[in-house]
Each structure stands twice: as C-alpha cells, then as structure tokens.
Design brief:
Elements: E1 5-10, H1 14-17, H2 20-39, H3 51-60, H4 64-69, H5 76-89, E2 97-104, H6 126-129, E3 130-139, H7 144-155, E4 158-166, E5 171-179, H8 186-197
Parallel strand pairs: 1-4
Antiparallel strand pairs: 2-3, 3-5, 4-5
Helix pairs in contact: 2-3, 7-8
C-alpha cells in the first residue's frame, strides 16, 4: 500500500487577491456540482431557495484545490462537508464534528482525487477495496492536525490518504481515508471517535 499522503491548504486571505483564472475554475466546479445535485431528484436541499448562494459561499471559503479535487460524480459529498462545517460553527459545539462511512476505492488514473488510491491488486474483492473514510470539521487552532492524527492513531485507523483544508473564517475540514480492523462496524468506530474527539475541546 502507498505511504500516507498529507495534503493541506489554507484559504486565509485568498478571496480578495485571487487570480481571475483561479476564481473561474472554482466557479466551474461549483456549477458542475450544483447541476449534478439538482439532477439527483432525491436531493431536496438543492431546490430550496437560497441553496445556490449557500453552495457558492461554501466553495469560496475553501481553497481552489478543494474545488479541483472533488469527484463530481459524488457531488453529495459537498453537502456533507457543508453540513459538518455548519455544525462546527454552532456555538454549542465544543468538540470536532465527525462523519464516518465506508467508501469503495478505485484505481486512480492521475493521482489527483481525494478518495482514490491505487489498488494493489486489480482483482481485489469488494471487501478488500472498502476503506473507512473519516471526515472531521472543527474550529482551526494551533497543532490541531497533529492532535487529530494522534487520536486517529490511537483508535487504530491506518490512514493512507489525508486531505486537510482551512476556511477563510478559520475552520478546519479534513478527510482521512484508511483501514480500521479494530471495530465491528462504522457506528462503533464513530462512537469511539466521538468519545475521543470530545477531549479536544474547541
């Protein structure tokens, strides 16, 4: 398996000075995601008044790499990221907000996708291709990334790929993809993570 990859970027201050071409690429990604979400009839949120503005704000508060790295075929991931950040902004939230799920890993063609890692065997079973994806949103602070990875190490998540972002208004969004054999299911892993992350007060 490939070594752990840590990708990160900060969005602080880019909005006022961003190159017009970069801004255009961001808007293109936004439009593609918006179109796909509206095409998915089951996503009722996409038809709610004001949704376009909320989605545009989400894209503009994060760095360009976030927009370019999205898998538009999984446009609903953006809704999850948006929801987690909104929960993290709630004054009543005192610890990182977490989502845990299983994702199927496909062979990466160009290495640019966040949830794609190269499979060791093209004939691997579906179970072997499944990975745990842990998404975390919280208020950004000094040494946060190190503290989060320490918790993930302690619970036994062997992450192979990490994507970390900070927003223009000082929040952190991180996606950790890897293996965890220590727990029977996703809910058990999430329960343990929530308990451990609660020790990291915002």
């Amino acid at each position: 398996m490939e070594d752990t990859i840590r990708h990160s970027c900060t969005s602080k201050g880019f909005a006022q000075s961003e190159d017009p071409r970069r801004r255009q690429k961001r808007l293109e990604a936004y439009n593609e995601v918006l179109w796909r979400l509206r095409d998915l009839k089951k996503v009722a949120e996409a038809s709610v008044p004001g949704f376009e503005d909320e989605l545009r704000t989400h894209f503009m508060r994060l760095c360009l790499r976030y927009a370019l790295g999205l898998d538009v075929e999984r446009a609903e991931d953006v809704l999850m990221h948006k929801r987690l950040l909104k929960e993290a902004e709630n004054p009543a939230t005192t610890s990182p907000v977490i989502e845990v799920r299983l994702v199927e890993i496909h062979a990466a063609s160009d290495g640019s996708r966040g949830q794609k890692v190269k499979c060791e065997c093209p004939c691997a079973s579906r179970e072997e291709r499944l990975r745990h994806e842990v998404t975390i949103a919280t208020k950004d602070k000094l040494k946060l990334f190190s503290r989060l990875t320490n918790v993930l190490d302690e619970v036994g998540l062997l992450y192979h790929e990490v994507h970390a972002f900070t927003t223009t208004d000082g929040y952190f969004l991180g996606v950790f993809c890897g293996d965890c054999r220590s727990y029977e299911g996703v809910e058990q892993l999430k329960h343990v993570l929530v308990a451990e992350m609660s020790k990291l007060k915002s």
